[in-house]
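Lecture notes, continued. The same structure-token format from the folding unit now serves as the input rather than the output. Read the line below as a description of shape only.
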């Protein structure tokens, strides 16, 4: 009863005032698999977008990123955060303590088209080849443009490509570029730019997080940057053909997640060595792109300002400016109340307060992300025995943790494979109901050293709900006999330690796992070890590798469901991560913003920003 009492104390601190919130629960769509010989994605022209703008049911193909975040987790946060899933991939808080730092930066002079101000988090990079968090990737797509992007339904749709042709066995993907794409310096985008970006992403000297995701392209494994990559064919200036070694039915889904594979201007980057790209000044100051917006200025830890790209190849945005403001969430809510801020992800503790604002709306929808802790399976002998990892899960009261962290805005999940609709939640999974006695028994069987503490890393950028999660986890793991010490690190330091394998437990969160089962391959396959991917825990299972390949090789949904069900069962038994829950995405949005369609993936706010208008 000691464990229960302690948890109730935490719950009471967080939930003394029970919220009576309005929920807009919007069901998720699913990614379309390439099941026919030709899949055509029609260009999203402004004249045809009325239906999209009026759509109320958004998406939640079930529980990233964030955060990955988060790992990208791809992040996630993100682990992803890849990073992802860091990420990150990844919902992380800014380091800024107050809004007064804004005084040092020049406020933008907004034009007649109006402006929208959005709460943001401090970016690590503005170069799309290196980001593993959605907070950055949505801005990359706005500045550079992506081959495909992810819409509110978590489906891939055209961005730079007008259409995609897919052969019958999903081994050849042909992208037909729009023929009127101009970079912001007046140069035209062609298939050479696309080839260049793919080749730089695959070149191991670059160190791009995309390398693992693109490893199925013919010649990718051995490509060293010398000459053309054989699996990429450019028959003319506007056609790019990608040839894969093995069938990959989910290739478009992975290429579009988290905000899409963005295209760099070859004429700007080709003279920069691959190994120097990440640290180049343009990685934080991208002057040339082909997206709907272009960078005006980025003030470190304060704000990023984008302006309309009047030469964008589709109908230019009506907004004159988008202002991404880096603030603590509490300051953000105060500015949402005064009208200084237009859109933000709301902390769960601020839902009830925000519902009282006459000029703003609260939107809560299921997400495709999860909150989780990565276990160092492959490079830390203490966690090599799956009984230890199972004990970590049994030791936690996940329903109580979810209620404490999200105030009821979440869903328990038992595997990273839990959607979309055709997949559903796999059967035959251990629910790991709260049982600290079982946890201790398993630890004793595995020969756990109860005198040696274990370390759980978390980050200064973690959101309030994630801090709640790791705090309760520490308490309950310790009570089950696994003395746990928390280590709070800056995001970059935690990321470095994660990539190097210098950790026991690493809390991340985010990702888009619930959108498409194959996305989770980023975090659990042997070809996605860092730095080429987001398998931070270095988990390896030959059967898991084989099943992910089998799932990609068929477009038959019944076959895919059977394959991914077996995969989920193995994962659930071997426990490479501890999954807490899938948190809802909650937005606060002022009524002046028209055309905003919330995405269940929290760090995809800008997916249709070119369609927004404002009414003051």
């Amino acid at each position: 009863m000691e464990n229960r009492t302690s948890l109730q104390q935490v719950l009471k601190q967080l939930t003394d005032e029970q919220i009576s919130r309005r929920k807009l629960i919007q069901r998720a769509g699913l990614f379309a698999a390439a099941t026919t010989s030709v899949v055509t994605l029609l260009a999203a022209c402004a004249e045809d977008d009325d239906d999209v703008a009026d759509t109320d049911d958004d998406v939640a193909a079930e529980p990233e990123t964030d955060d990955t975040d988060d790992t990208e987790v791809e992040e996630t946060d993100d682990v992803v955060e890849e990073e992802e899933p860091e990420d990150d991939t990844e919902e992380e808080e800014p380091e800024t303590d107050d809004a007064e730092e804004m005084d040092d930066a020049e406020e933008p002079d907004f034009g007649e088209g109006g402006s929208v101000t959005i709460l943001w988090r401090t970016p690590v990079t503005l170069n799309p080849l290196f980001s593993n968090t959605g907070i950055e990737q949505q801005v990359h797509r706005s500045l550079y443009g992506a081959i495909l992007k992810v819409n509110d339904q978590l489906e891939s749709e055209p961005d730079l490509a007008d259409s995609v042709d897919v052969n019958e066995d999903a081994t050849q993907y042909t992208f037909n570029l729009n023929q009127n794409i101009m970079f912001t310096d007046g140069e035209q985008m062609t298939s050479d730019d696309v080839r260049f970006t793919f080749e730089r992403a695959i070149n191991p000297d670059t160190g791009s997080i995309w390398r693992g995701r693109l490893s199925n392209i013919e010649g990718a494994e051995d490509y060293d940057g010398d000459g053309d990559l054989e699996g990429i064919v450019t028959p003319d200036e506007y056609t790019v053909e990608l040839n894969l070694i093995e069938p990959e039915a989910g290739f478009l889904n992975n290429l579009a997640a988290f905000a899409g594979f963005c295209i760099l201007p070859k004429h700007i980057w080709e003279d920069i060595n691959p190994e120097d790209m990440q640290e180049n000044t343009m990685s934080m100051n991208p002057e040339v792109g082909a997206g709907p917006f272009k960078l005006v200025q980025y003030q470190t830890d304060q704000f990023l300002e984008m302006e309309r790209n009047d030469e964008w190849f589709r109908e230019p945005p009506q907004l004159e400016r988008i202002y991404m403001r880096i603030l603590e969430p509490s300051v953000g809510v105060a500015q949402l109340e005064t009208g200084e801020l237009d859109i933000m992800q709301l902390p769960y503790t601020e839902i009830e307060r925000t519902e009282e604002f006459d000029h703003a709306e609260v939107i809560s929808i299921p997400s495709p992300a999860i909150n989780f802790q990565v276990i160092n399976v492959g490079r830390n002998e203490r966690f090599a025995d799956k009984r230890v990892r199972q004990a970590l899960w049994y030791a936690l009261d996940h329903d109580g943790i979810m209620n404490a962290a999200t105030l009821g805005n979440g869903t328990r999940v038992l595997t990273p494979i839990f959607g979309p609709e055709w997949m559903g939640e796999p059967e035959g999974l251990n629910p790991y109901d709260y049982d600290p006695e079982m946890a201790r028994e398993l630890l004793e069987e595995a020969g756990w050293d109860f005198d040696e503490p274990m370390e759980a890393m978390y980050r200064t950028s973690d959101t309030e709900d994630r801090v709640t999660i790791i705090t309760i986890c520490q308490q309950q793991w310790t009570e089950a006999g696994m003395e746990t010490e928390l280590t709070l690190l800056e995001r970059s330091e935690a990321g470095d330690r994660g990539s190097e394998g210098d950790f026991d437990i690493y809390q991340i969160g985010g990702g888009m796992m619930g959108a498409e089962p194959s996305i989770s391959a980023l975090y659990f396959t042997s070809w996605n070890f860092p730095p080429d991917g987001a398998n931070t825990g270095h988990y390896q299972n030959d059967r898991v590798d084989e099943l992910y390949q089998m799932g990609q090789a068929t477009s038959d949904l019944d076959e895919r469901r059977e394959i991914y069900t077996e995969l989920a069962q193995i994962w659930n038994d071997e426990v490479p991560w501890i999954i807490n829950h899938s948190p809802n995405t909650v937005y606060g949005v002022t009524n002046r913003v028209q055309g905003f369609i919330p995405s269940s993936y929290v760090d995809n706010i800008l997916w249709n920003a070119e369609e927004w208008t404002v009414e003051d």
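Point for the exam: The domain at 371-583 is CATH 3.10.105.10 (Dipeptide-binding Protein; domain 3).
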